[in-house]
Write a structure and sequence with these properties.
Layout (H helix, E strand, L loop, with lengths): L9 E4 L7 H14 L10 E8 L4 E5 L12 H12 L5 E9 L13 H14 L4 E5 L5 E4 L16
Parallel strand pairs: 4-5
Antiparallel strand pairs: 1-6, 2-3, 2-4, 5-6
Bound molecules: tetrahydrodeoxyuridine.
Length: 160
């Protein structure tokens, strides 16, 4: 028997002010996107912003539905919008943030498992890692070098 230990490296910044100006801009765009969240059921707003290789930024937010399983996460809304309009342009980075009416979120908010799978597929499709920047409303920012790091032992299309 052999034991494999999988490691994930996370860069921890004390606040968004420590980020490069480009990353600050991306996080700001994700925070602006929160305002467009349609979340009357959970009241939990999530905003995402992506940086494309052509320099463009796009953003999105979670979109809920009275039929709860149809709720769409901000990350998948944003990736789908970008890849629909610019299917050949790799996504270099994505900033994710969230806001709740019941508490000030001071910890970085990470994408759900389904979104991690979609982030991973998008990286494979474009053969480009997607840097992930995570922040709550305030506080520390986590930066992960690629979505693959958020999904160890990932399932991909190679066996299909
Ligand atoms: N949500 C996201 O937008 N992204 C995630 O990664 C996790 C959850 C949304 C879905 C739903 O509208 C609300 O947050 C509460 O789960």
């Amino acid at each position: 028997m052999k034991k494999h230990i999988l490691k994930t490296a996370i860069e921890v910044y004390t606040s968004e002010k420590e980020l490069s100006l480009k990353d600050q801009k991306l996080m700001k765009k994700a925070k602006q996107a929160l305002k467009k969240s349609y979340s009357p059921y959970s009241n939990f707003k999530v905003g995402a912003a992506i940086l494309l290789k052509n320099g463009k930024m796009m953003s999105g937010s979670n979109q809920e539905n009275a039929s709860y399983p149809l709720c769409l996460c901000a990350e998948r809304v944003t990736i789908s919008a970008a890849d629909s309009v610019h299917p050949k342009v790799p996504i270099l980075a994505m900033a994710i943030t969230a806001k709740s009416p019941s508490q000030t979120i001071t910890k970085p908010v990470a994408p759900c498992g389904a979104c991690r799978q979609v982030i991973f597929e998008t990286e494979m499709k474009h053969d480009t890692p997607m840097r992930i920047l995570l922040q709550g409303e305030t506080g520390k920012v986590y930066v992960i070098e690629g979505g693959k790091d958020l999904l160890p032992l990932s399932f991909d299309g190679s066996l299909l």
